[in-house]
Amino acid sequence: KAASAPAAGPTVLRRMAEADVIRLRKYEVPIKRVARKLCLDPALIAGIISQESRAGLLLNNGWDQGQQRFGLMQIDRRYYQPFGMWDSEEHINQCSSMLVAGINEVRARHPAWSWDRQLRGGICTYHSRAGNLQVYDEDPCSEDSNYANSVIQRAQY
User: Fold this and answer.
1) Would you tell me how many other CB atoms lie within 10 Å of the CB of residue 12?
2) Which residue, 11, 32, 58, 75, is most buried by CB atoms nearer than 10 A?
3) Can you cite a GO biological process for this protein (predicted)?
């Protein structure tokens, strides 16, 4: 489960993101290397890490409470073979590659959408796929736009 309540307001998200920035510093180098390799904004990767695991705060040896989702970016082991250690560059690369694939899929399916909407759709597609949910809707954010909004807000810190 994502690291915030669905209705968390901007003030709550800001406080969580500001606290996560301190923990994220230790992952700055691998995040930047992966971001450069995949042509992503490092802040977007950090936003997902903050949303999914509070930069590791919510994890027990890399696992969520249910022992199903793994790593800083929380990939579901029932559907994907996690790569690397839970906080490794390899893990960040695996999940960030899934994010890029989601963004590219949304861009291909919806070329007339604005870049902002395509990005939000890609973030929602990543979130769905990390848990192996299939995205059939025209708009992958139609079920839960709060996830994409939270990631983008967290990426600003």
Assistant:
1) 13
2) 75
3) defense response to Gram-positive bacterium
